[in-house]
Design goal:
The complex is a heterodimer of chains A (417) and B (341). By secondary structure, chain A is of the alpha/beta class. In chain A, the strands form two sheets. A five-stranded parallel sheet of chain A has the order 1-2-3-7-6. In chain A, strands 4-5 form a two-stranded antiparallel ribbon. In chain A, helix 9 links the parallel strand 6 and strand 7. In chain A, helix 2 crosses helix 12 and helix 3 packs across helix 9. The termini of chain A are far apart. With 341 residues, chain B is an alpha/beta fold. In chain B, 36% of the residues lie in helices and 21% in strands. A seven-stranded mixed sheet of chain B has the order 4-3-5-6-8-7-13, sandwiched between helices. Chain B has a five-stranded mixed sheet with strand order 10-12-11-14-15, sandwiched between helices. The longest helix of chain B has 17 residues. Chain B is globular. Chain B starts with a strand and ends with a helix. The chains are: A alpha/beta (417), B alpha/beta (341). At the A-B interface, helix 6 and helix 7 of A face helix 3, helix 4 and helix 5 of B.
Chain lengths: 417, 341
């Protein structure tokens, strides 16, 4: 056995010297570029990770000190960003309680992740397309979607542009270039790859950003999304909000590799990991990602490390699977709003009065919208059959007429206008 | 056991026409669609070099790699990718290589494609999407190259399903599908690519979606089917006429959803008897939907129970394909029993 092994090693070296073949087989058929490197090795090494985990890009430290390169943003822009984070947080507080009081059926908060949302959307153009998962309401709020419309959607009233079709927080708005949210996880990722492809095809100054969580990144749709975007060349920013939890499932049960960042690299995608609670880092990375997408006609992956401050939804009680001390730790200093506020206060770009005013104004706006929507009617039941197709089919019309006849025959059972 | 099928098409009196098979008809129709709409994009697995059935030959050369391309091997991805293109203003013909492999895309089709317009109240839609897939028996396809999958999708609101029986129908229905502002599943019986030949007008035309075609007029019994089954029904109708003196009315449904209830029920009210037939397994196949609605609308006109002549409730077998299929002899036998009820 020893003799054989020595012989085979000698044979390889002899082949190399005699043919001058230093590099080994040409990798072209495998789409692997070995230029400048040996494509062969005598060292059998099983590797499962890079030598160290990828660190988080950060600009503001946990005390709100700028320790990196601040993005080129004006006072007005920074105030708008902080104001939006605060508004989102205030709205979340009121609507969460509204659900507890039975005024809306369901709600999901964004606590702790405001910077991932507003930091990124503020770095994009207003008509860049957004595909989101469900914890990105701040993106829509930043773009100017009315709180009244959000609450109309949550209650499914006649002021809901989507005719009350979906559960709360499933927002969408063509005017704000925000695709309608759907409940199945990660389905938006390969769709975003397709949308980003058109931006290359049409050669327009646009990108598509796609938000998703650490849990959604385990879904089957994640794989073709990145693979298609990379091979076909999509101007898509894949933005992962790694908040440590998928409902009750912690990250340790979700993946074994170096987070979602390493997968981007694995697909041949320019990838970066950022401190998702640092609004400047998120903003800078997204701005750069946008440039890279357009320059290279290729996707970019951003893994924003953050923390889910609230429960998964109003149907969840996270005290059953995590410690309050952990939540408190993440929602104190490192919290995105607190951090950015400290930074802005030091620059005299934000004051305690500003904070109080924004909170009070937002509270009034949300309460007024809630009260308005509670008095609002609903879309007519004849709308049940519309939008299944562009035009209702004969079968649907027949079914609608049967439904209406049934309703009219039982006026005590069905409340109709 | 293949023979060249002459698809019974309408006589086109005025314009020029060309003899061709169904594969060529589809290829030329896609070429034309791409020329008419420079925002149309075609992709799927192996579509670039012409496709495993040659339906996309020449498209990449004419329209370029940006508009005609191969995707990686992933059906859920390619359907979702198509969704993204559609909502960003493009039209897409997405090809699934075999209908048997459409299932990874089931979530995207049912939960996304079908619901996109409804959940957004038409603020967004995927109307520009046509999904093409070869389906049905081919003689040697066995379990994973022979399935007819229409009934899985017919159950889902928001999808239209179209199945051509020959080249003339393929061009007209595919043109209509491209124009239709709803997502459409266009299932092409793969044996008909080469085996169905006919005269196809050179000019652009459409066949309305949702309209059935009475292929043979008759008075004693109605047979309803689609795709490859149409030729089998016609074969059975000839035998029934010649050997049993039974006059069969043969209907090609053409569109599965929304299906032409009026044409079919008018026919059954006239004949009083009905056979529904498809290759897919009988239980919960689309024939169940047809049977239920026909009996509901035509109850008093029926002289006999409606029969279903379909595949058995097994997976599609290799060695016993001829026994499995709803063949001409099975159709004849069922019709004779129905006449003697």
């Amino acid at each position: 056995m020893n003799v054989m092994r020595r012989a085979s090693v000698r044979t390889v070296r002899q082949v190399r010297r005699s043919t001058g073949l230093v590099d080994g087989p040409d990798g072209e058929v495998w789409n692997i570029d070995f230029t400048g490197h040996n494509s062969l090795t005598d060292n059998m090494a099983f590797k499962k990770a890079a030598e160290k985990p990828e660190p988080l890009y950060r600009v503001l430290d946990a005390q709100g000190e700028c320790v990196g390169e601040a993005p080129d943003l004006t006072e007005e822009e920074c105030r708008m960003m902080n104001k939006t984070m605060v508004r989102q947080s205030v709205m979340d507080g009121i609507l969460y309680e509204a659900q507890r009081q039975g005024r809306i059926s369901f709600y999901m908060t964004n606590y702790g992740e405001e910077a991932t949302q507003i930091g990124s959307v503020s770095a994009l153009k207003p008509d860049d397309m957004v595909y989101a998962q469900y914890r990105e309401a701040g993106v829509l709020l930043y773009r100017g979607y009315e709180i009244n419309k959000m609450i109309a959607q949550c209650m499914g009233t006649e002021e809901d542009d989507a005719k009350g079709r979906q559960m709360p927080i499933h927002y969408g708005s063509p005017e704000h270039h925000y695709q309608t949210i759907s409940s199945p996880l990660a389905t938006q990722l390969p769709q975003a790859a397709g949308a980003g492809y058109t931006m290359k095809l049409d050669n327009v100054d646009k990108v598509c950003i796609c938000y998703f969580g650490d849990g959604a990144a385990s879904e089957g749709d994640f794989h073709p999304a990145l693979n298609f975007a990379a091979t076909l060349g999509s101007r898509t920013i894949f933005f992962c909000r790694n908040n440590g939890y998928a409902i009750s499932t912690p990250a340790v049960d979700q993946y074994a590799g170096d987070g979602i960042y390493a997968r981007g690299v694995g697909y041949g995608i320019r990838s970066v990991r950022v401190d998702g609670n640092d609004i400047f880092a998120v903003h800078a990375a997204t701005k750069k990602a946008r440039e890279l997408c357009i320059e290279h006609n290729a996707p970019v992956l951003i893994e924003a490390m953050t923390y889910r401050g609230g429960h998964h939804s109003t149907s969840d009680d996270s005290t059953r699977y995590r410690q309050k001390s952990e939540v408190d730790k993440w929602m104190s200093g490192p919290n995105p709003i607190k951090r950015f506020t400290r930074y802005l206060e030091k620059k005299n770009w934000w004051s305690k009065e500003d904070d109080k005013q924004v909170r009070e104004e937002t509270r009034k706006e949300v309460m007024a919208a809630l009260q308005r929507q509670e008095k609002m009617g609903f879309w007519d039941p004849t709308e049940l059959i519309t939008d299944v197709f562009a035009e209702p089919t004969p079968a649907l019309i027949k079914q609608r007429d049967e439904m209406l006849a049934h309703m009219r025959a039982h006026p005590n059972v069905y409340k109709t206008a | 056991m293949h023979r060249t099928l002459r698809a019974a098409g309408r006589r086109w009196l005025s314009s020029a026409a060309t003899e061709m098979n169904m594969c060529t008809a589809i290829n030329l129709t896609m070429k034309d669609a791409m020329r008419r709409n420079d925002k149309m994009v075609i992709f799927g697995e192996d579509v670039g070099f012409g496709g495993v059935f040659r339906c996309s030959v020449g498209l990449r050369d004419e329209f370029g790699r940006d508009r005609v391309f191969n995707t990686p091997v992933n059906e859920q991805g390619l359907i979702a990718f198509a969704v993204g293109l559609c909502v960003a203003g493009h039209d897409v013909i997405a090809e699934i290589q075999f209908a048997d492999y459409i299932f990874p895309a089931f979530d995207q089709i049912v939960n996304e494609v079908a619901k996109y317009r409804y959940r957004a109240a038409s603020n967004w839609d995927v109307g520009g999407l046509v999904i093409r897939a070869p389906c049905s028996a081919v003689g040697h396809g066995s379990m994973y190259h022979s399935q007819s999958v229409e009934s899985y999708f017919a159950h889902c609101p928001g999808l239209k399903i179209v199945i051509p029986r020959g080249p003339y129908q393929a061009k007209g229905l595919l043109n209509a599908s491209v124009a239709d502002r709803n997502p459409i599943l266009f299932f092409e019986p793969k044996t008909l690519y080469r085996n169905a030949e006919g005269s196809v007008p050179d000019e652009h035309y459409t066949i309305p979606i949702g309209q059935a075609d009475v292929v043979r007029v008759g008075s004693d019994i109605t047979m309803v089917g689609w795709g490859t089954q149409v030729d089998r029904m016609l074969g059975a109708a000839s035998i029934l006429q010649e050997e049993h003196g039974v006059s069969v009315e043969v209907i090609d449904l053409q569109t599965i959803v929304p299906w032409d209830v009026v044409t079919v029920t008018e026919s059954v009210r006239k004949t009083g008897r009905c056979i529904v037939t498809h290759e897919a397994p009988v239980t919960n196949g689309f024939g169940a939907e047809l049977t239920s609605t026909i009996q509901e609308r035509c109850f008093l006109s029926l002289e006999a129970p409606i029969q279903r002549v379909c595949g058995y409730d097994t997976h599609f077998p290799l060695a016993w394909e001829e026994f499995y299929l709803p063949s001409v002899p099975r159709l004849v036998e069922s019709a004779v029993k129905t006449m003697n009820y």
